[in-house]
């Protein structure tokens, strides 16, 4: 079982930045991958960025060069540094974890944190 708690969302002007944090209830070094997703009103939830246990990262095209995902295994925390924010980045951002267990793959979600970018 993994509980994920996000923080760091808020209201920011276009061009500004925010850092989201996701604290896990267990060692993230034992979690296969962690990611940030987002969901804007009327749209499907989409992958924003992910990082696996080996440190490899992936980003959706629209955030490349602006967002950076990182993990701190000591603090059991995954971060999403968001720079040069645009109004289209406005969404609820969710932390996600994928865990392999003896009974199969388990997926976990946080409760989400709102990011609003004003123009």
Structural class: mainly beta
Share of helical residues: under 10%
Number of strands: 11
Q: Could you tell me the strand content as a percent range?
A: over 45%
- Rounded to the nearest angstrom, the radius of gyration is 14 Å
Give the biggest beta sheet. Answer: 7 strands, mixed
Mean pLDDT across all amino acids? 96
| Overall geometry | globular
- The unreliable regions are none
Terminal residue distance: 40 Å
Order of H and E elements: EEEEEEEEEEE
How many DSSP H or I helices? 0
Architecture overview:
This protein has 119 residues and is mainly β. 0% of the residues lie in helices and 56% in strands. Strands 2, 4, 5, 6, 9, 10 and 11 form a seven-stranded mixed beta sheet that branches. A four-stranded antiparallel beta sheet has the order 1-3-8-7, with no helix packed on it. Strand 9 (91-101) and strand 10 form a beta hairpin. It is globular, with a radius of gyration of 14 Å. The chain starts with a strand and ends with a strand.
């Amino acid at each position: 079982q993994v509980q994920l708690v996000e923080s760091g969302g808020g209201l920011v002007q276009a061009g500004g930045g925010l850092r989201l944090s996701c604290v896990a209830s267990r060692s993230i070094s034992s979690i296969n991958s962690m990611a940030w997703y987002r969901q804007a009103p009327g749209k499907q939830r989409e992958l924003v960025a992910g990082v696996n246990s080996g440190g490899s990262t992936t980003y959706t095209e629209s955030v490349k060069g602006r967002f950076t995902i990182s993990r701190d295994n000591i603090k059991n925390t995954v971060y999403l540094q968001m720079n040069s924010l645009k109004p289209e980045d406005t969404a609820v951002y969710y932390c996600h974890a994928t865990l392999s267990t003896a009974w199969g793959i388990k997926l976990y979600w946080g409760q989400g944190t709102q990011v609003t970018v004003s123009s």
